[in-house]
Amino acid sequence: MVNLEKIKEVVRKSKTVLFDHDLDGYVVKTDGQTFNIPWTNSDFIKDLKTCEVDEYESDLIFGKDKTRNIVSLEVYDDEVLLYKVDGSLEKRPMIYWILAPIAYDKDFKRLEGDQHYKYIKTYDDRIEFVKAANFYKKRDVDIFRIWNEKEAAMIYYGITMFKGLKVKDVSVLSFDIESSGLVRDDTSKVFLITNTFRNSNGNVIKRHFRVDHYKDDDVEMIRDWCKWVVEQDPTIITGHNIFGFDLDYLRHCCKKQNYELELGKDNNVATFSRFSSSFRVDGTTAWDYFKVQIPGRHIVDTMFLSVKYDIGRSFPSWGLKPIIDHLGLVKDGRQFYDASKIKNDWYDLKKREDIVSYGIGDSDDSLALYDLMIPSIFYFTQSVPKPFQIMAQSATGAQLNTLMIRSYLQDNHSIPKASERTHVGGGISFGPTGILKNVLKIDIISMYPSIIRSKKLFSKEKDPNKNYLKMVDYFTEERFKNKRLYKETGDEYYNDLQASQKIAINSSYGLTGTSGLNYNDFSVANEITSTGRQILIDSLLWATSKNIGELFPDYSNEFDSTEPLITKGVYNFLPGPTDTDSISFYKQDYSHFSEEEQTKLIEEINSFMPKGIEYEHDGYFNTIIVLKAKNYILQQGDKVKMKGSSLRDMKKEPALKEFIDELIKDLLATSGANCVDIYHKYIREAINIQDITRWCTKKSVTKPVLKPTRTNEQKIRDAIGDKIVQEGDKVYLYSAIDGMKQDSKKGELVFLKSGEPKMIENRVLKLKEDWQDDEDQVHYVTRVYKTLEIFKNVIDTGDFLKYHLKSNHKLLENL
After folding, report:
1. Which pTM value belongs to this model?
2. Cα–Cα distance between 551 and 252 in angstroms, integer?
3. Taking all residues of the chain, what is their mean pLDDT, rounded to a whole number?
4. Are residues 617 and 498 in the same domain?
5. Which of 132, 198, 415, 630 is in the most buried spot, having the most CB atoms within 10 Å?
6. Distance (Å, rounded) from C-alpha 449 to C-alpha 502?
7. CA-to-CA distance for 342 and 211, rounded, in angstroms?
């Protein structure tokens, strides 16, 4: 007898329910349970499908407030305004708060627990709150507060956005502008604003605003555009590089008539920060931009999204069209246009229509990027108490830190203070150089989160409720479940959910080892990385029968204290690249691993691993060319991937990128038999450049360039000369010879014995457009050789003449 009431109770508590059927009747699948229900109970099945599944039950993960369908939040007149997807508005009183380690006055209330910030004081008036916060700040008093008012409200109440919604349920406007150029001056003009708007029902509306329809008055056009945006009422406004260019350019042009961009709900104006912010691209590059807020809406810049999305740094550049092309998203019939010519070509009526078509393609393309890249961030926003706009820009470790703060503060519990940084040992990364054949690569599934869970790691001092460990457990289990559901159903929603959960678990280590976060703990970070290193050391011993010192003489075990899992080698394979969570190996005779061998080896090494730590197949490669640690080329059938900064430097001259590609193709096809000829081909081009564009480097105009204090920045500033540029602009530069100058050493001018000044060529940088066949040939010959040296561990560079040396310059004539 089927207990229908019991099934209904299980379904109510379940997070996911799948309805299916077989020959005998209905099949209901919940979390880990399957129920078979006879065909005669069809009414019960209908009733069951109406049961509300509370997927947001966990207060830790989703906050105590379960309000659904929130698409935006604003704080105005000491009220929290919650905008819903259906257009309705809900209000709450705004509670401002400050935490402190001691009660600075009688209004501070004691929180539970004994973490550093034990006292809280709340305010219902913003003026009083700001006055108090500034009072403490000026006196360098130890307090903790969240500066962003929306975020502070979300933490206090336990609110998150988008509960109960999917990406397609939230309206989005993608826009793009075409203008008279990049420069903001009296001649700046917006010619065109193209728009692709998708409402919450999925209907797409396209509307384009052209200055020639407004008697050449671009401000009147922008006013009309703002009115249309308010009428459509998008929750999200997106576009490519709209923080760095479009929005600020629109604002600049509107200054001609003292108009401000009325883009927010109720015609509220967009506000621009007075101070620049920095978006970190990588370890050496950051973009300065000015934050923009549009009341009731979120701004998502797809250029920032692209950086977050491109983890492997495979994109050829951060421009919209190269990314769209790289991802295979170019639409049939897409109109392209040279943006540098729009300033003049707009006034050619025939060309103008091509420019309009080009702009329409841009707004479509940025929406395509948004749809591809936003789902994981969107669904993670359902857990993290931060506005969506901030989620699309901020670091994931900080996002988890905010989740942890909420988990304690919503329970009236004290929170800790960020710990000072101490050194944390990193992961193992090395690769025996050479051309390797038939290489099996395996990696640990979610290595750091798996270590956290298997060893039950958390900060005992900061996290008495073990919320960190519970959080990692939850996101990991949910990811496994949603990966399974995606495989079973093919529903992309489950794939997007597991991707958002992957963000959380992969950021769990970053939370422990990042300065400035309340819940960091460098001792926990060290235990995570040392355990990871030990696993790889043991795995390499298993595969090669050699200890880490034999394989990697430079390895330092300063932080290693974990007991080994494997103490004796099993095989005599040779090691390939090893990097943080993966090892690779191949047979000494380069012979093939059969599929059965591969499966057996993975099963065998997993038998040595502790519970919760598991290797999985990460690729079988015909060839791996290892140049150095973290820099290698992978060939898998017809597919070739490059990994490493030396190979993927986006700032490298286009001709030298081609040079690298040709060398790689030859190494894979002939083991380098034609590399000398390829080298000579590019040396010949370097001494007879016909197209300087192929030899230019792209530089960003930064604050140090605009106000240089170092030689490198000064050279760029000199090259720009009188050209009007501003921070964030891109310039293309080449190396040139500009006459002669007197040599100097250590700041002193050099003279010949005759007393005459010693003269040398004056090597400078120049803008691409200033090229007059005056390029520095020796510089470019040197650049070709330096690029060749990237391959010095797999190519015998002794076979290549060093034409850049002065003694060999005459030999260039023979080429």
Report:
1. 0.82
2. 60
3. 91
4. no
5. 415
6. 10
7. 14
